[in-house]
Amino acid sequence: MPHEESTAAPRLLAVVNTAGRGLGRFEPWLAASGITTHIVDGANGLPRTLDGYHGLILLGGGFMPTDDELAGWLPDERRLAEEAIATGIPTLGICLGAQIIAHVAGGTVEADSGTPERGSTQLTQTDAGARDALFADVPSSFTAIENHRDAITALPPGAELLASSADCVNQAFRLGDHIWGVQFHPEVGADVTARWSVEDAAADGFDHATLVRTANANEDESARVCRLLADRFAARIHRTTTH
Questions:
Q1: Catalytic amino acids?
Q2: Which CATH class is domain 11-241?
Q3: Using one digit for the tens of pLDDT, what is the confidence trace for 2-18?
């Protein structure tokens, strides 16, 4: 069971929603913190329960939390999110993953909502973020990679807002003491922007070369912040397995 004390490394389930993508730099960072990761592509089927896992990460994808016809595994992923919320398993939702958590917990997610965000984006911590177990040591203003056009427009009841950006209020939130959602991508670095489509960036009003240049300029400090979030999340998992 997830909460039994064990001398073995805690096991984390990471759900991939876009083929070919994974945990990125989070995988070695979590490993360095003593976490064993099991990465599963949702398209290949998800575990029925979180039994045997001590943590959960839900990754991003280019669809809405209820686009079951596009991604047939989404009902199972929503069920895993509900289980994690109910059972106290530390969970981090990233981009679509955060939107799935918000949806199942009673928040609102809207497609093509507001202004699309691409590349290195300035984020501002809230007062609640300054007291949060993951965000407390993060600078009050920091940057991270964004790549979304859908957004959480209303947080779930009881959730605390931890960070915002100029174009997207709900950038990070916590539900209870063990569930986090972030709209940004702490698991990827500036190098991802070079692989983005020049045409797609232009269609959303962005100059691709500027996206790459800005992300590279901010990378060192951004990586330090994102590594801190990974380390704090790993520490939260360890606390769960020893109580």
A1: 95, 185, 187
A2: alpha beta
A3: 444 445 899 999 999 99
